[in-house]
Design a protein that fits this description.
Blueprint: H1 6-27, E1 77-83, E2 86-92, H2 96-102, E3 107-114, E4 118-122, E5 135-136, E6 142-146, E7 151-155, E8 162-163, E9 165-171, H3 173-181, E10 185-192
Antiparallel strand pairs: 1-2, 1-10, 2-9, 3-4, 3-10, 4-7, 5-8, 6-7, 6-9
Length: 195
């Protein structure tokens, strides 16, 4: 039998070497979580006429990005929360419920502790929920609205997702510390910054 040609022999070696690898991936072996792929694409040079980081035939993302080493401008209303006499900076988001709250500033409310993770104060009339998500999962250090009870909320612990929560803004870490360590009931004034 004559010796196989070099291209045919090289193809046979590649096929034999790749066969065990596809068997492992198909069997789902190893320490990967089920359903997670371990395939990693090698970086490629962009196709001529395309922008690096885009797929040929697609348009680059038009969202402006901040220059490296800079902080993007915050969208929303800068506020100051005065918690038992201590001023703390915050920022209301740019959404319908937060704009509704901003239109009512300044406000002074007495907040009561609720479940060791948040302080709540009744707000009447209720804030609008038009255009807001059905619920949310606020993080500690956020200002929120809980529509079912009509409460403005200052979160200093994790509460998880609840239907009826609207995230209104954020406060400096100092507020989280003051709320967690402070008395059960606390007086808070919320005002526009510089106003």
């Amino acid at each position: 039998m004559p010796a196989p040609s070099r291209p045919l022999a090289a193809a046979a070696v590649v096929a034999v070497c790749a066969l065990p690898l596809t068997g492992c991936a198909a069997a789902g072996g190893g320490d990967r979580a089920p359903g997670r792929s371990t395939t990693v694409a090698a970086p490629q040079d962009p196709t001529p006429g395309t922008t690096p980081g885009t797929t040929p035939g697609t348009t680059p993302d038009p969202t402006p990005r901040p220059a490296p080493g800079t902080t993007p401008a915050a969208a929303g209303t800068p506020v100051v929360l005065t918690i038992d006499g201590t001023p703390v900076p915050g920022l209301l988001r740019d959404n319908p419920a937060a704009r509704d709250l901003a239109s009512r500033l300044p406000l002074t409310l007495t907040f009561a502790d609720f479940d060791g993770v948040e302080k709540i104060a009744a707000l009447d009339p209720p804030l609008t929920m038009a255009g807001m998500p059905a619920g949310d999962d606020p993080a500690p250090g956020e200002i929120g609205w809980y529509a079912p009870s009509g409460d403005l909320v200052l979160y200093y612990g994790d509460v998880g997702y609840w239907t009826g929560i609207a995230r209104l803004g954020t406060v400096d870490d100092a507020a989280t510390d003051l709320l967690a360590a402070g008395p059960r009931d606390v007086t808070v004034t919320l005002a526009a910054a510089g106003g």
